[in-house]
Design brief:
The complex is a heterodimer. By secondary structure, chain A is an all-alpha fold. Chain A is built from 17 helices and 4 strands. Chain A has a two-stranded antiparallel sheet with strand order 1-4. In chain A, α4 crosses α11 and α5 packs antiparallel against α11. Chain B has a two-stranded antiparallel sheet. Chain B has a two-stranded antiparallel sheet with strand order 2-3. Classes of the chains: A mainly alpha, B mainly alpha. Chains A and B meet through α6, α13 and α16 of A and α7, α12 and α14 of B.
Chain lengths: ~350, ~325
């Protein structure tokens, strides 16, 4: 099945070259797509690749279903946001905020893990769902602290301001390289890209290590892993904490990029649904799946809605159909695609392609 | 110490918890009138939550299926009932108790029949292909939840809808200096009837015997020649219909409903079944009453804590009994 040990299969090569292509596109995104919206999309893809990959550590590698992943993402984002507003724009605020987010995530993850990872998987899913919704309600209620429903707007460190001159030409103006301004926006994008790349490599290394093998063993047969002498609860709690910490860091990065943090961008249940869709579309249990799922979903999010708006206008005469084709209803279609995928392609795009190649 | 726990066990064990809670709150609140109002509010809220939660718990107990889409039935029940009530607006506002109650009966019947039909559809189309696979079950029912929420948004829009209450359920009865809302009494009564009905069916009828046997040991019941899958569709449909009725009652209680209602109630329902222990009706009732009482007492004593109160209650109970108070599933 897995082609990593033997000769790489066709499907395997196809998947990996696609991922490499995506990485190259993301790396040169500011030069290739020179408009503001495309850069937004690229940065969102970077952050979501990390977020989805860290979720895949749980659901795909260890077989734990958690609905609290956005909560950890939100801890990181709110940590940076609150400190950036209180302390003013600066690196100390970003680093302290990121650390605070990670710390809170670790504490909460340990508490939830020790409390509920001992019992059935389904209990864990329910408890994380409850915890996440409490976090969401708290964020909107403690408005003097979190900005409530409106969220927090703040300034990023000076380096990332669009007015900041990264390189200047002889006249003291911002240097243009291949028509791209060397300004703070570029620096901000590469901050997001490099951090996400590093985090992704950490996870890639992790799943290839003996620890990753143990996690898979737990997913496949919990009782057997326990019998061989691995402490299942300890491993599960560890991986839950780890993925929480990574999600929190991704949240911090996203908060610095957006210069705004609110329930909709960092905590809402819609993000959790996005992550679930990305994991399932891409393929559970492979880091490459996270990349492909995140890319497809984010692009769909930004561009599919435009398409649906056109379709809604075209079908204006028919009852109910325009309502369902309304751009706001795009989750309806994604939900249906999601159900069909879980039925027919439970391994997702990457899993299915890899398997095809291995057979042939 | 052992003596004491023996005595407590004989007097009802964990079923004494709500009484203990009420007693503690009585001491803390101090004013008997407000205590009585809060207790009645808590009991009626508990009963409505029980309606919503009982189906989920039974479905899990019998077939090891956890339906994350359960809240879709709650919201659909609420919206269907609200629509029927507004269609029958003339009857609802009329001065005759007969017309009032007919409107109410029709609204509840609409919710029930919708719940039955949707439950049948859900079980046979969505859930049947993924029995015995928890991971895919969670994912698929979650997907179904997303789709149903979007359908509600498409049909009823995102703006809050006002729910008409039948005229005879408006107002309050004054007993001494305690005022009791009639709607709460009605909700409590309906929940109690549902509980007694479920209890009698499960414990006194042949079908109930089979359901309980199925919860206990599914293979054995199948080996004895009973079609447990048919039984399960029945339980699923009844569970969904109960959730729809619960949603309808909740809609009347809140009087202003939004499509977010299902999601909000779902968390409470989950907490209730976790506290009560999955799979048992009595445990669910116990959990629902505990949650209802706690929410009302804490809301009065420390409004700031009200949001987290259910979560705290759940944490305490899970630390004490990791499988819930009265688990039926081993």
């Amino acid at each position: 099945m897995s082609a990593s040990l033997s000769k790489p299969s066709f499907g395997d090569i196809a998947v990996k070259s696609t991922v490499l292509l995506i990485a190259a596109l993301l790396c040169f995104a500011p030069f290739l797509f020179q408009d503001v919206r495309a850069l937004e999309v690229a940065a969102r893809i970077c952050v979501f690749i990390v977020l989805v990959a860290s979720y895949d550590l749980l659901i795909g590698y260890t077989g734990i279903v958690s609905f609290a992943h956005t909560m950890f993402f939100g801890f990181g984002a709110y940590g940076a946001a609150i400190l950036l507003r209180q302390m003013g724009p600066g690196w100390d605020a970003v680093i302290l905020g990121g650390l605070a987010g990670v710390l809170v995530s670790l504490v909460v993850a340990t508490a939830i893990g020790l409390l509920s990872l001992r019992v059935k998987a389904i209990f864990f899913a329910m408890i994380t769902l409850a915890a996440a919704s409490v976090a969401l309600v708290l964020a909107s209620q403690l408005s003097h602290f979190t900005g409530g429903e409106d969220g927090i707007t703040y300034r990023a460190p000076d380096l990332f301001k669009p007015a900041f001159k990264l390189m200047v030409d002889e006249d003291g103006k911002v240097l243009r390289l291949f028509g791209v301004k060397m300004n703070g926006k570029l620096a901000a994008y590469y901050f997001v890209f490099v951090t996400c790349l590093l985090l992704f490599f950490v996870m890639l290394r992790l799943v290839g290590s003996p620890l990753g093998t143990v996690l898979k063993a737990i997913r496949e047969n919990e009782a057997r892993a326990e019998a061989i002498g691995y402490r299942v609860v300890a491993y599960r709690t560890f991986v839950f904490c780890l993925s929480a910490a990574i999600a929190s860091l991704a949240g911090t990065v996203y908060a610095v990029w957006l210069k705004y943090t609110g329930p909709d961008t960092a905590l809402s249940f819609a993000i959790m649904i996005d992550i679930l869709l990305m994991v399932v579309i891409g393929g559970m249990g492979t880091m490459w799946g996270a990349v492909i799922g995140a890319v497809l979903m984010v692009i769909a999010q930004y561009y599919l809605r435009d398409l649906m708006g056109v379709a809604a206008e075209a079908t204006a005469g028919i009852p109910l159909l325009p309502e369902l084709l309304n751009p706001d209803r795009w989750l309806f279609w994604l939900g249906i695609i999601f159900i069909l995928l879980v039925y027919f392609f439970p391994k997702g795009i990457v899993g299915t392609i890899t398997q095809k190649g291995a057979r042939g | 110490m052992e003596n004491l726990s023996n005595i407590l066990g004989r007097m009802g064990g964990v079923y004494l918890l709500p009484a203990g809670l009420a007693l503690g709150a009585f001491v803390l609140i101090g004013a008997p009138a407000s205590w009585a109002t809060l207790t009645i509010a808590g009991l009626s809220m508990g009963m409505m939550v029980f309606l919503m939660a009982s189906g989920l718990s039974l479905i899990f107990g019998l077939m090891d299926v956890l339906n994350f889409g359960h809240s879709a039935f709650i919201s659909f029940g609420a919206f269907v009932a609200a629509t029927v009530l507004s269609l029958l607006g003339g009857w609802v506002g009329a001065d005759s108790v007969f017309l009032n109650s007919m409107a109410l009966v029709f609204a509840l019947l609409a919710a029930v029949s919708f719940g039955l039909a949707a439950g049948w559809f859900f079980e046979s189309v969505i859930i049947r292909p993924v029995y015995h696979d928890h991971l895919r079950q969670i994912l698929i029912t979650m997907g179904a939840l997303i789709v149903s929420e979007q359908i509600i948004l498409a049909l009823w829009g995102g703006t809050p809808i006002t729910v008409l209450r039948p005229h005879f359920l408006e107002g309050a009865i004054i007993l001494g200096n305690v005022s009791v809302e009639i709607y709460r009494l009605f909700a409590f009564g309906l929940g109690l009837v549902a509980f007694i009905g479920l209890y009698l069916v499960l414990n006194r009828s042949r079908i109930g015997l089979l359901v309980r046997a199925g919860v206990e040991n599914r293979e054995m019941v199948e080996a004895l020649g009973f079609r447990i899958d048919r039984l399960f569709i029945g339980v699923f449909m009844v569970g969904s219909a109960l959730a729809a009725v619960g949603g309808a009652m909740w809609a009347g209680y809140e009087t202003l409903i939004t499509p977010a209602l299902g999601g909000e109630m779902m968390i409470v329902v989950f907490i209730v079944v976790i506290i009560g222990g999955l799979g048992s009706i009595k445990g669910t009732l116990l959990g629902a009453i505990m949650v209802g009482l706690t929410a009302n007492y804490v809301g009065f004593l420390a409004p700031k804590l009200a949001l987290a109160s259910n979560m705290i209650l759940m944490t305490i109970i899970l630390l004490w009994r990791p499988n819930g108070l009265r688990p039926a599933v081993k």
